[in-house]
Amino acid sequence: MRLEPRTERSLAVTAIAPVAALAVSLGVSALLVLAWGGIDLGKAVQALINGSLGSPFALAETLTRATPLIFTGLAAAVAFRAKFWNIGAEGQLYAGAMITIALGTGAVALPSYLLISVLVLASAAAGALLLLGPALLKARFGVDEVVTTLLLNFIVILFVGMMLEGPLKDPMGLGWPQSEPVTGEAELPKLWKGLRLHAGFLIACGLAVAIWIMGRFSVLGFEIRALGHNLRAARFAGVPVTATVVKLALISGGVAGIAGFSEVAGLKGNLTQDLSPGFGYTGIVVAMLAYLHPLGVILAGIFVAGIFVGADAMSRTVGVSNYIADVMVATSLLCMLVAMFFSRYRIRRG
Amino acid sequence: MEFIEPLLMGTFWAATVRIATPLILGTLGELVCERAGVLNLGIEGIMTLGAVIGWVTVYLGGDLWLGVLMAALFGAMAGLVHGVFTVQLGLSQHVSGIGLTLLATSVSYYFYRLLLPGVSSPPTIEAFAEYPIPGLSAIPLVGPALFNQTPMTYLAFILTGLVAFILYKTPLGLAVRTVGENPAAVEAQGLSVSGLRMGAVAFGSAIMAIGGAFLTMSTFNAFFFNMVNGRGWICIALVVFGSWRPGKVVLGAIIFAGIDAYQLRLQQFLPDIPYQIFLMSPYVISILALIVMSRRAEYPKALMVPYRKGER
Q1: Does residue B100 register a pLDDT over 60?
Q2: A195 secondary structure, DSSP code
Q3: Which end of chain A has fewer beta carbons closer than 10 Å to its terminal beta carbon, N or C?
Q4: Which residues, other chains included, contact A211 with Cβ-Cβ below 8 Å and sequence gap of 6+?
Q5: Measured between beta carbons, which residues in chain B are less than 8 angstroms from residue A2?
Q6: Which is nearest to B204 in space by CA: B32, B55, B7?
């Protein structure tokens, strides 16, 4: 047996691959649920589906959870296209959230639509600035961006803790490490009365479309793809490597920063140290499930959010630990990797 | 003067080596993988897996050394998963590694909850105790630092020697080093590139897992969520810092741990500075070390380059 590159990409295999990957990962997760013991698998699956899709309320919860994942998924997709491994979306998200609190709790008085625009730009700038360091270090000195972005996550989260016990502490917070809530003008409107789904979802989808258009029709999009395909060839062809890495880092970090704004101004209202349960890391899975395609990120984000929201419901109904959601998401990433491989290679006998 | 005082105390140096031990093991494991040409970002998850497996084995009545062995075994299995993805299929080592970290971490947490649903305060085990080496442990400073540790720390030093010996003094080591530099040359010798790489990744991952197990079986006697807390990522920086050499890597881990132990003591002298500043210091130092060393780092030439027979 040997592996042979496919001469042409088959659309059928490309489309079936993610489905097969998901089927395998669901199978693995089902085994783990059964290992919990005393659980009716049918009831568990029903709880999962009902909890994520079964009612308008459940669907809205899924889309609400998908919102930060679309942002962080886009952040990963843009960067990974150029083989720039930004694993720091978690920190960039918190940077965006911090600047949202700093400006949105009364420091800047503007009409709502203007204030929200300012906050979007500010949070994007904060996330982008945080990634600028690793990007420059990578482009100028060849410092591995995986380690720098990962370690920055820990530094930023500690910094958030420091701010929440210092300058950003809510004086009315009864000593809890939390910030003041943002003012009414800074809040993102809800999309539907009585549901938590907010305008951040629309911003995320809009960004996905914008990034898709940029990737497809702009010179920068071409340069980013060229970097990902072959660095030396790109340099030879006259692609300005450093400038391109910096630009794509600004986009990637910026998108992740807006995730922080969206979570604070759309959902939570204030900043705490547990604003993100690893949205930055899950975004990587979302991006991979979407083949790094910006529009696919929307679908993948909703899918992964559905797993998390559904698993919470399953956890409440049948008592299985909701860490099962993390297992499902991780296995679907690994299965997806294999599936992507078989969309590019085939097994030949002999 | 009071700032220098801790440096003159045996307890400080003992703490330094204790903090260094999981880093030594993790870094050593990562070094073995990278020397063979495979970046293993699964390290953070594999250390978590080792921490849970080692602890659970003892909790269920197993012997402490059986716990270490089980941790190593599960670590090796996780390493083989990474190996299949990156060596056999030649997939992105970055994405596969991150995926493995997510998987190993979540499976570990799920497994822990499976075993102990709804326990609020983590149950404890009888962990490894310090084992003073007669005579040597009485030497001032050096004694408490190196010869009054738990057996797992001694194991870490033994493994360092073993890895250095294998890498530099045996044909196997030569083959592993070559496979990370020039796999085609190894192939030309009639050796299996994928076999060597799979073996190195499995062996390296086993050592990482022991590093994780140290946390639950020597430092603490219980398992906490998020207890690995970025140590795996720090190990990856330390490998670069130690320029892929076992001796330098251990030295790097000890220097790093010394700074970490010192900042813990410094916190008491400087209560006005927010404690988070001190907690940040290990991560900041890792980044700085990486920047300084990266400029003249000589990566194994075939690191992150998948090898397929007959393909150039």
Answers
A1: yes
A2: S
A3: C
A4: A74, A77, A78, A251, A255, A294
A5: 309
A6: B32
Distance CA A178, CA A168 (A): 8
| Main-chain dihedrals φ then ψ at residue A340, nearest 5 degrees | -65, -35
ipTM of the prediction: 0.91
| Contact call for residues A87 and A150 (beta carbons, < 8 A) | yes
Interface contact flag, B99 A158, Cβ < 8 Å: no
> What is the rounded CA–CA span in Å between residue A280 and residue A96?
13
Amino acid letter, residue B89:
L
**A50 — pLDDT class (breaks 50, 70, 90):** very high
Q: Name the closest residue on chain A to residue B293, using Cα atoms.
A: A143
Residue B215 DSSP code = I
For residue A169, the SS3 value is: strand
Residues near B46 by Cβ (< 8 Å), separated by ≥ 6? B29, B40, B75, B78, B79, B100, B101, B104, B205, B208, B209, B212, B232
Q: How many CA atoms within 13 Å lie on the side-chain side of B63?
A: 3
- The reply to whether residue A319 touches residue B117, judged by beta carbons under 8 angstroms, is yes
The pLDDT, as a whole number, for residue B269 is: 83
Average confidence score pLDDT of chain A? 90
pLDDT in tens, A23-49: 888 888 889 888 887 788 888 889 989
Q: CA–CA separation, B285 vs B230, rounded Å? A: 13
Ordered domains of chain B (ranges, CATH): 5-115+145-294 (1.10.3470)
Looking at the DSSP bridge assignments, the partners of residue A169 are A179
Helix (H, G, I), strand (E, B) or coil at A174: coil
Residues of A (119-158) whose Cβ lies below 8 Å from B = 137, 141-144, 146-148, 150-152, 154-155, 158
Give the model confidence (pLDDT) of B18-56 as tens digits: 999 999 999 999 999 999 999 999 999 999 999 999 999
What pLDDT is recorded for position B53? Answer: 97
As beta bridge partners, residue A348 has A2
Task: Specify the amino acid at residue A302.
Answer: I
Strands annotated E in A6-81: none
The pLDDT value given to residue A350: 54
